[in-house]
Specification:
36% of the residues lie in helices and 27% in strands. The chain has four helices and five strands, in the order αββββααβα. The chain is globular and about 40 Å long. The termini are far apart.
């Protein structure tokens, strides 16, 4: 019997955990493409912009599946790295925030 992949496995296998790297400053913005929407995450602060993270925190949960996916992707070195110029940082951040 085949094991059914969970959401975290699917996100990692499809390289939907993304590190947006800005050069030459080396600033980083992490995102995870979830179910129909891209979420801004901060693995070092255990934060995700998704509603599940917010409502989960109210119920005492530590994190959402987007953060679990990011940890797994980092552990497996299966991250999509997208490189940008520092000149693009402001526009990228504005676009990301406007989708929240």
């Amino acid at each position: 019997m085949e094991k059914t992949e969970n959401k975290t496995d699917v996100i990692v296998s499809e390289k939907r955990v993304k590190l947006h790297l800005f050069e030459p400053s080396q600033r980083q913005i992490w995102t995870v493409v979830g179910m129909g929407k891209e979420h801004w995450i901060s693995p070092e602060f255990d934060f995700c912009s998704c509603e599940g993270y917010y409502f989960g925190k109210l119920k005492g949960k530590k994190h959402c599946y987007h953060l679990d996916s990011a940890k797994l992707a980092q552990d497996e070195n299966n991250i999509e790295i997208v490189t940008f110029s520092d000149d693009e940082y402001s526009d990228f951040l504005s676009g990301l925030i406007s989708e929240l």
